[in-house]
Design goal:
Layout lengths: L1 E8 L3 H8 L5 H4 L3 E8 L9 E8 L2 E13 L3 E8 L2 E11 L5 E11 L2 H47 L10 H12 L6 E3 H5 L18 H10 L6 E10 L9 E9 L3 H7 L7 E4 H4 L3 H7 L3 E5 L2
Antiparallel strand pairs: 1-7, 2-3, 3-4, 4-5, 5-6, 6-7, 8-9, 9-10, 10-12, 11-12
């Protein structure tokens, strides 16, 4: 019996991936999970990660042991569990639409093992399929809420911590002009890095979860400074939130670097900005248009 559901999430692929692979914190994100106990953790990657997951079933706690059997970073992972004569296979997959939107799909396959389990699977299809679908949809909604609220909460906290409205000397005219320019683009919008920082003194516009924040001037100097490298052709900011609110600059959590710069060299160059990831764009599924425009490989620098 296969049950599947999906949901669109207003966030980057990397942010969604970070949420669904944080297994140890799953009970804090997904309301249906009572407890997570990690049993075995691989030295590298996800494959082999094993945990016990407790949920409430008919008013009583039910625990099953799961493990990851296959995974591709920023794309999907599969889990397996065995209980009561059944094998349960689950796939969590992130896909990108033609408009740049991100969709998270959760697919659950219950496979009976043996005659007794096969007989049990008949009433399962009749009575439990709807219940399973409802649980999957709730899990997806919880993940969506957690991912989308994480950034906005951080921004609100930063604004609340400012001692006075004048602490951010942002050029309002340039801010409104940039928003108007970007609103004419299809999502996800991208903007040359110099344009992103022109008039921008809003520390919440990039790296908003960093504590302490390196400062917008440091972000500006490091990211625009990449353009001086002979192995960098262009640098773009991808806009994750066009209009976070009044007095706020458009928000970016993803930077694209077109050129032949090596991953290790780029990671070292932007290290002071404490990015969560520095990877090739073809691994994260982002911005093929920039690669085509410059006929060049593209690297992604991303902050949670």
């Amino acid at each position: 019996m296969i049950v599947e559901a999906q949901i669109t999430i207003n966030a980057s692929r990397a942010a969604i991936w970070a949420a669904i692979t944080d297994i140890e914190s799953a009970s804090e994100i997904i309301s249906g999970i009572e407890k997570i106990e990690v049993v075995d953790k691989p030295a590298n990657g996800l494959v082999g990660l094993r945990w016990r997951e407790t949920r409430m079933l008919f008013g009583k706690p039910a625990t099953v042991e799961k493990w990851i059997t296959d995974a591709a970073e920023n794309a999907f992972y599969r889990t397996k569990a065995e209980d009561g004569g059944f094998v349960f296979l689950t796939t969590m997959r992130i896909s990108e639409g033609s408009d740049g939107s991100m969709t998270l799909t959760s697919s659950h396959d219950s496979q009976p093992q043996g005659i007794v389990a096969r007989l049990m699977s008949i009433p399962m299809r009749l009575f439990f399929k709807g219940m399973i679908k409802k649980a999957i949809v709730q899990d997806l909604n919880d993940i969506k809420s957690a991912v989308e609220q994480k950034r906005s909460t951080a921004v609100q906290q930063r604004h609340a911590e400012r001692s006075a409205p004048g602490d951010v000397a942002m050029d309002d005219a340039k801010c409104e002009a940039l928003k108007a320019e970007l609103s004419a683009q299809p999502e996800p919008q991208v903007v040359p890095i110099a344009r992103f920082f022109d008039g921008n003194d809003d520390p919440d516009s990039i790296g908003c979860n960093l504590d302490p924040h390196p400062g917008i001037d440091r972000f500006r100097s490091v990211l625009t400074g990449l353009l001086a490298r002979p192995d960098v052709k262009a640098v773009y900011a991808q806009i994750s939130e066009l209009d976070p609110g009044e007095g706020c600059w458009p928000f970016s959590d993803t930077i694209f670097v077109a050129g032949t710069v090596a991953e290790d060299a780029l990671r070292q160059a932007v290290g002071v900005l404490q990015p969560d990831e520095v990877v090739a764009a073809d691994q994260s599924g982002n911005s093929p248009s920039i690669a085509e425009r410059y006929n060049s490989p593209v690297m992604v620098v991303w902050w949670d």
